[in-house]
Structures are given as C-alpha cells and as structure tokens.
Amino acid sequence: MLRELGKTLRIRQQPETTPSCRVCNAAGTRFLCDVQNEHSETNSLQNYRCQGCGSVFVGNPVDSDELGIAYGSMDADRYFDEIEIENKRKMRGAIERLDALVSRSARLLDVGAGNGQFIELLDEAGYSDLSAHEIPGGNLSKIGAVACEVYEDFDYSLLPSNTFDVVTLLDVVEHVIEPQSLVDACARVLKPDGLIYFHTPVVTRIDRLMHHMQALPGLRKVGAMWQRGRTSIFHLENYTPGSLTLILERAGFRDIEIETKNELSWPVERYIRTYMMRQIGLPAAMAPVFVPILSPLISTNFFNANKAIVQARLA
Ligand SMILES: [Zn+2]
What we know:
This protein has helices at 2-9, 64-72, 76-82, 84-99, 117-124, 141-146, 179-189, 205-213, 220-228, 241-251, 268-277, 287-298, 301-304; strands spanning 29-36, 44-50, 56-58, 107-111, 129-134, 149-152, 164-170, 190-201, 237-238, 253-261, 307-314. It is of the alpha/beta class.
C-alpha cells in the first residue's frame, strides 16, 4: 500500500539548487516534497517553504502558456458547479464584510471574476457599479448581464488607472505566477484611499506539522499526500500573514487587516475521497468512516485556518 502511495506522490530527495521565494526574494527556501501533476507537461511539482516569510510554493518555473494548458484541461462548468454551495456561502460572507466597509454605490472591480457568481450576488445585494476582470478564454456570459465593464487580458493593462473605489479578488492571488504584479495592478486601478479586499489560502498549523513530517522517513509520504491537497499547478502558493503584508506594503497599501479562518471549498468527505482514499488503496465508499476522525483537523480554525481574509487601503 505504501509503495503505491510513494509511486503516486513521487517522493524524492531535495534538489541541489532551490528557487528563491517569489514573495520576499529570500534565497533560503527549504524543499518539502514533490507531488504529481496531471494537468500540464510538468509531471512533478516541487514544493518549497521560504525560511524568510514562511510562504509555501511550487518552485517549478511554470509560465503562463503552461498555466493555460492546465486550465484548458479543466471542465470549468463542472468545477464551478461542484463548489457552488460553499462558494455562495463564502461570497455572501464577503458581501457582509464589504457592506461594513463601503457604500453600495461604490465603483467595484472584481478581479478573477470566474463564472460571474460573485458579481451576480453583489448585484442582488444592491451594488450598482460593478466591473469584472478575467483572463481571456472564460465564459463571461453571466457577467455581461450585470457588469458595467468587462475587461479581459493577461497583464491587467486594459484596466483604467485611478478609477475604482474597491477591488475584490476571491481566491485569485494563489493562482498567479507574479502575485506582486497583480497587487501592484490593483493599487494602480484604485483611487486614493481605495479598498482592496481578498481571500487567499495561507499556511496553517496542520500544514506546518505536515512539513515536519515530510522530512521524516516513514512519515514523509503522509506529509506529501497532505501537500497534494494544498498546492498544485492551480494553487501555486500558500501565503502567510507576513508574506501578504509584504506584498501589500510594497504596492503602497496601509491599514492592512488580515483575519485567518477555516474556509473549505468542499465537504470534508470529498477532500478525504479525493486526496486520501485512492492513494492509500482503500475504496472511495469508505471515506465517511474517516470524516469524524479527520474533521477536527481539516475543518477547525485551530488546526486549519486555511484562508486569509484581507483588507487594506491605498495610501
Ligand atoms: Zn519568502
């Protein structure tokens, strides 16, 4: 069983050279593990942890063409259907928070608008000046019906400067190759004192425990199996409050507030089925047995506050 697990996760020793941290540029990054990737030509993704800011990231030199291939391999409609219930809950929570920070007539830009669900919910909630940004190739038909403007490009150059009161990014920053460029672009398009608001994955207590396990013979396969559910070709980075603060300060933001909390995209059983059952050689139907055992680890703030909810004002 463990031999099969090792084959799936492609455990191996630390490469001779390690990449610098994408956030703080520290050269001191520690190799964690390799995990298999089925979505592009890179078969094996090398995971590292920055000894400076603590971010955990995929260290392979992935470019936008490769990301395009990976996203092209996804069934986007199915993906959005699968996460719809949890996504709506998260989005309604985000709208409650925004209500306390800005007026509903605020000029709002949603970056990484996906299938437009957040824009639709903002519209339903009474927000009246909505715009959206996405990379080309997505299905923006829902967005067009409620958004004043829809921008589609890869480098944000179509977005007008000094225009918006609020920029939102729900689970976007972890997908990009250059997070600083994205946050810099958000600063450019905001008016002075404008608000940036985003959700993105962060390193948790159980992540750190698993990072230690990845260094221990006998337990490293369990640690690598966990990591496979945390970083991928789609989630290139798990940040820390420190690394997010650094990115925001460099872009010119102040009054930075970061709350970390448990926020899952799927029910716990689905995580167990997807990332554990096949790897350990057990039938998917047995996943419910593990739910009461693993829920305290996966779905609690103490062990797995996996999402940062971030707000900051442009100076
Ligand atoms: Zn770093």
